[in-house]
Amino acid sequence: MKKPMLPLNLCTLVLALAAPAAWAKLAPPPATPEAKAKAAEAAAKTAWSGKVDTYKLCQAQDRVVARYRASATTAGKPVPAAPATPPCADPGPFVFTPPAEAKPIEASGAHSPATTAASPPSTAQPAATANPTPKAQ
Which N-terminal residues, if any, form the signal peptide (predicted)? Predict the structure, then answer.
């Protein structure tokens, strides 16, 4: 009777362990313009959420300070002067304006010179007088 080379379960286990390494080497698919726009909107929304959180924290701190100052005043404790702080800045509602699409370099004309040269950049002055070199001694 012939022995099988490797049991089926062992082969399956080896393939299952090798698959993540093969997937890790693959490059991600190129991003489509829709995916880029969605990612830009998500980044803008995240930044706006951070500003809203900062605004709410500022308001909460102002309420705590006002309550502390009121309780200290009623208790007859001396209340130090409040330091000058900037007012809480309300970020307003979330508004996303997609960035303007950048033209490719070929269409923007960035690689073309502004004007065509009318004369060569040379002069009648000899190079030795324009760039004198010290004599070796």
Answer: 1-24
For 34, the token pair is 């829709």
Query: DSSP secondary structure string, the chain?
Result: -PPPSS-HHHHHHHHHHHHHHHHHTSPPPPPPHHHHHHHHHHHHHHHHHHHHHHHHHHHHHHHHHHHHHHHHHHTT---PPPPP-PPP----S----PPPPPPPHHHHTTTS-SS--SS-S--SS-HHHHS--PPP-
* Comparison of pLDDT for 5 and 77, the residue scoring more: 77
Q: Using the structure block, give the residue that is written with the tokens 């923007």.
A: 108
The pLDDT of residue 51 is: 96
Query: Nearest to residue 101, comparing CAs of 36, 30, 48?
Result: 36
Average pLDDT, the chain: 80
